[in-house]
Amino acid sequence: MQTSALTSATIAPLTHKKTVRVLHAIRQGSIGGGESHIIDLVTHLNKSDYESVILAFSPGAMVDRLRKMGYKVYVIESTNAFDLSTGRQVRNLLKSQQIDLVHVHGTRAFSNLLLPARQLGIPLVYTVHGWSFHSDQSFPVYHARRMAEVFFCKAAQQVITVSAANHLTGQQLSTDFHSVTIPNGVDTERFNLNNIKVDLRPSLGIPADAFVIGFVARLTKQKQPLLMLHAFEKAVQKSGGMESKLHLLMVGDGELRPDVENVINHSELLQKKVCLQGFRTDVPELLAACNAYCLPSLWEGLPIALLEAMAMQLPCVATAVDGTCNVLQNEQNGLLIAPESVDALANALLYLLHDDAMCRKLGKEARRTVEKRFSAQAMADRTAAVYEEVLAMRE
Q: Model-level pTM?
């Protein structure tokens, strides 16, 4: 899938402006990896060169936060892919806001932006925040999504992958696949342990001397919160039971929230040792209350939550999947474990609990990794270069 060629027949002549107006479109308006990426991207793009407009197909915390930051944010509510009923609204938005470039994040947004953008001759950039097909899906769903991704990548004027692993998967989709790999980035000033002034442990009911494992993620199958609970419970039992210093801080919402609550409520040990919070925006302060971070995902594009924890100098345990392997090197700047293994995760938690020197080493190297390779400013600058290349094709 080579980048689609732009011709005068398909792309309207570029109207030169001092500032390029970019529409960032994403399916949901709540906070997740892709949504955090948009916040960091629009924050760090040069405001004199780019004016960012945001479109989501559901309301949520991302929408609210960006509006408070002063951005134009629109919500066209839809739960369907290829939802033709949204076409007129999307097209009117593109026209009224005089959009020069559409940057879509994820397949749902792409499916609802493709036709309106083409009708108006507006180029599309597509960021793959992890592919939409996974091995645990049914055969029809898996192959339908593979075909959809092939179609979207051909339809975009440029594809951005957030990890080398995602780029490699794209090449396996088609021999002529092409993308620019731009890793996700983190605001290293916001996520900086030295800038945290608040201790949240008292308000969370966590003892000052506890060794706190952080799990800040959506409560979905992908992130494996139930496995997290089972592994944590096993680690606590091995390290002293009720007297163990281990505590777990779980932060997030999602479809598995009732199951998570059920597991906790049926275990006296977990009721004492787990602090379960819903969605919160004070993530740096929450991470500062932790001694380590854990992300036992089944798959990842390039996990922003992991990068945020690393920026906070936390020793991190994560499963050796996809983009995570492009970030962590085992026992160098984190610990990598096999997916879906309760024992491997429990043992990794015990390892960190009992080895202060390793924790310090991993935390220090984690911060250094983010500063060197995953800053939000570098991500925004490289994305802007892609915009310039795509827009130059229209001249």
A: 0.83
